[in-house]
Amino acid sequence: MKTVKFNNGVEMPILGFGVYQIPNYDECKKSVLTALETGYRSIDTAQAYGNEKAVGDAIKESGIPRNEIFVTTKLWISDYGYEKAKTAFERSMEKLQLEALDLYLLHQPFNDIYGSWRALEELNKSGKIRAIGVSNFYPDRLADLIEFNEIIPAINQIETHPFFQRNEDRKTMDEYGVVHQSWAPFAEGRNNLFGNETLLKIGNKYGKTPAQVTLRWLIQRDVVVIPKSVTPSRIKENFEVFDFELSADDMQEIAKLDNPESAFFTHATPEMVKQFKLWSGL
């Protein structure tokens, strides 16, 4: 498995398994077990997903040595703040049944990100977390956090797919040595990604699906990917992306699909800040 190296030396598999929108315990546990049996060694969950317990149970049941599995979870904004972040971290660790976490992220760029980040820095220094990072931080918020804190985030998990490629965001991440990670690599099927003519044409050359072409395109850009599925055949399909390589022309054709607007929503409006506050019950 290809890996990426963080700015603190920790390595992470470039391809992992995501469990967003799998709140059902049995379905989530079964999917994680299938992913681990397939060969995935990185699992991405979050406090807000409501499935940390299922992930922890699956890891335990798999019998795979702990040091072979890279586990990520995230802190939700309702628990932001120095003391609350530490308490929330311990709750997540109890559900995951882990003594140490590989990667812990601030899930959103709202509320008390600075108090929360100080808590994460301390947990990182204590050895309870191997690396800390952020999610959904736009370039200005990322630079602000970095310039006024001690530890630079290892990774920034942001919406990234062929229709929203985040090239400007990537420049800032590269400047600071922050790894680029994608959520929604398939745009959740928006813009007919699975039937896109460009992706289908490229896939036909290699005997691959648009989903596999998309994952390969991200991997060749050194973007960490965490596709989610509850279908065993799709979980296996998404893992079979290391036996072909896209040409420079292929990469350029996919680059033409870029759109400057999110396929979902922007975090950069007052209305969205208010919406996240409502979603968090604050």
Automatic annotation (TrEMBL):
Keyword annotations of the record: NADP, Oxidoreductase
NADP-dependent oxidoreductase domain location: 16-258
InterPro entries, A to Z: AKR, Aldo/ket_reductase_CS, NAD(P)_OxRdtase_dom_sf, NADP_OxRdtase_dom
Annotated organism of origin: Chryseobacterium suipulveris
SUPFAM superfamilies recorded: NAD(P)-linked oxidoreductase
Membrane spanning stretches: none
Domain of life per record: Bacteria
Alphabetical list of Pfam families matching this protein: Aldo_ket_red
Protein name: Aldo/keto reductase
Family: Belongs to the aldo/keto reductase family.
UniProt entry tagged with the keyword Nucleotide-binding: no
